[in-house]
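User: I've been trying to design a sequence by hand for this structure and keep getting stuck. Would you show me what you'd pick, starting by listing the structure so we're on the same page?

Assistant: Good idea, let's start from the same input. This is the structure you sent:
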């Protein structure tokens, strides 16, 4: 082999260096099915979702994405309003982190991980529950299963209404006797956690709609929840009002915030008269107290 001159050796080395530089870039472009090629070529950042409030267990969050974009929470697509508003809820035992993927109209996407604040829950003991409610027979079990399907179907509704954007109000006012997330012991036996907030009011107390919506379930007497009313607030957000003595509206009826919809009672699995208010985002159970002002203590009457 003929010896190379200094100039030839320099040109050869430069060619080798250029090859070594371009090979990784060529690999990245050829591997685009596995890598996001747009992240190599795009200078401006991809869209991320913004939302109000801290992510927490039992929370209902309202966010914003740019119009025309799509957003997925743990693979589940959220329904955006025309202005890009989205809503989602996190269950009592939501994991430490959740993942959102936002996809622009042009196909570019970004996945972001958010931390979820954990909560500590109380223990609550309830006594005075009837033996039949504590130990349902075979016929009762069939009834319970059928009523669970009715409730599930009512909470799966996904209308494009945005009644959930209203500032929620208390459906009844009185002392709070049970809180969201508490581990319940009924007659000394550990059962499922409590997923609502209990308001201690006498039987027959007026119950109003905490926000506008459409009635998706109006049942006079379910095995566990007694008189039960579910109001859909749009985008999977719903309120459930339980242990009612009377339901005053019908399924399919439109109700407005503050409208009288029921009367409180002690029906179903209850040890005394009260209102149990629960909220859901589809199957995720959220804490109603996070959406309303602090309950005002009843005013004491002055002695004359």
């Amino acid at each position: 082999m003929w010896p190379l001159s200094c100039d030839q050796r320099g040109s050869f080395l430069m060619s080798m260096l250029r090859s070594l530089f371009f090979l990784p870039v060529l690999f990245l472009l050829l591997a685009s099915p596995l890598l996001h090629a747009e992240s190599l070529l795009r200078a401006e950042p991809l869209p991320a979702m913004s939302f109000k409030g801290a992510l927490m267990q039992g929370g209902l969050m309202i966010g914003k994405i740019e119009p025309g974009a799509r957003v997925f929470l743990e693979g589940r697509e959220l329904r955006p309003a025309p202005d890009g508003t989205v809503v989602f809820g996190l269950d009592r035992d939501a994991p430490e982190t959740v993942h959102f993927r936002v996809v622009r109209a042009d196909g570019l996407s970004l996945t972001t991980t958010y931390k979820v604040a954990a909560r500590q829950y109380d223990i609550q003991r309830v006594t005075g529950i009837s033996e039949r409610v504590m130990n349902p027979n075979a016929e009762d079990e069939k009834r319970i299963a059928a009523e669970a399907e009715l409730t599930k179907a009512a909470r799966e509704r996904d209308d494009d209404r945005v009644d959930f954007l209203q500032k929620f109000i208390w459906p009844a006012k009185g002392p709070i006797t049970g809180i969201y997330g508490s581990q319940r012991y009924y007659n000394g036996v550990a059962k499922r956690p409590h997923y609502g907030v209990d308001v201690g009011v006498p039987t027959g107390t007026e119950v109003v709609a905490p926000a506008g919506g459409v009635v998706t379930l109006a049942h006079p007497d379910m095995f566990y929840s007694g008189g039960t009313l579910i109001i859909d607030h749009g985008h999977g957000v719903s309120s459930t009002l339980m242990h009612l003595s009377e339901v005053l509206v019908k399924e399919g009826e439109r109700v407005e915030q503050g409208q009288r919809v029921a009367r409180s009672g002690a029906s179903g699995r209850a040890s005394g008269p009260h209102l149990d208010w629960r909220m859901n985002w589809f199957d995720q159970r959220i804490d109603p107290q996070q959406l309303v002002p602090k309950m005002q203590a009843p005013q004491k009457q002055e002695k004359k």
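That's my pick for every position. To get oriented when you compare it with your attempt: Residues 238 and 280 are 5 Å apart (CA to CA). Confidence is low (pLDDT under 50) at residues 16-46, 300-304.
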